[in-house]
Amino acid sequence: MRKLVLLAVVGFLAQLVDGSLGMAYGVTTTTLLLAIGTNPAAASATVHLAEIGTTLFSGASHWRFGNVDWGVVAKIGIPGAVGALAGATFLASLDTGTAKPVMSGILLVLGLYVLVRFTVKGLRKDRLGQPLRKRFLGPLGLFAGFVDATGGGGWGPVGTPALLASGRIEPRKTIGSIDTSEFLVALAASLGFLFALGSQGIEWSWVLVLLVGGAIAAPIAAYIVRVVPPRVLGSLVGGLIVLTNARTLMGKDGFALDSTVKWVVYGLVWAAWIGAVAWSTKEHRRERAAEQAEGPHEDERERVGSPA
């Protein structure tokens, strides 16, 4: 019972982050399932089955708050579903001993990407309104869907930064469109796992509590997406993912490193994580102060230029 409550809380927090940041639900929940010894393919299948419900709730919530660009959803979501189906089939064909370090490695790379991306660059806003081309969205969706299924997460960490980096769609619509299109990815990945594995290793009670926790968080996340600073949140989540998967890779299921080496690595990761969060917080405050300072200047120019 305690484990189910913990999973519900994790599902809630993961969806709260995902709905606010456009990533990290699958990466966070899969990392936890791997940490408690779940078979990699079963872990990814469990998360994607839960995501069918959470992404449906999240998409509906983002649509209600005007955070969805349906053209982007179609152009990236359909190729994403194809990639997810292929990724699920690939992961299911690997034996457990090979799959766990492979998945942890993918999750570690994604965590590093999220950490570095949001700590160093923040969000780009100078190209807003320019159209996103299908030849960009199609391959992006195909790749992100494949990574999502094989890594138990990755649709957001790959898709969201790429759209944000383009600077052609505002952040809230990037997050809403990625979350909404993820329904197609979760559905395709789940079908792929069920065809390849059946229901072997899937704990349906876990699916249910992850779904319930995520469903409760979805409308809250869609509302606060305008308020939460993505830069700081990205650094927090990225560091957590790196730390957890580094632990797996250094343990018996990975490289089985000496305890002294492990503690040195832990120390470096913690130091980098704390430094990243501190830097992101500082930069967020600086950017916010600059925006607030710019406002009065614009108002003053309008008053000077207006007729008496």
The chain-level mean pLDDT equals 75
Radius of gyration: 20 Å
Outline the biggest β-sheet: none
Q: Helical content, roughly?
A: over 70%
Number of helices in the DSSP assignment? 11
Structural class: mainly alpha
Shape: globular
The SSE string, one letter per element, is HHHHHHHHHHH
- What count of structural domains? 1
**Beginning-to-end CA distance, first to last residue:** 71 Å
Oligomer: single chain
Q: Which regions are unreliable across 5 or more consecutive residues at pLDDT < 50?
A: 297-308
Q: Roughly what fraction of the amino acids lie in strands? A: under 5%
Q: What is the count of β-strands?
A: 0
Provide tags for this entry.
mainly alpha, globular, transmembrane helix, transmembrane, TSUP/Inactive_protease-like, cell membrane, TM_pro_TauE-like
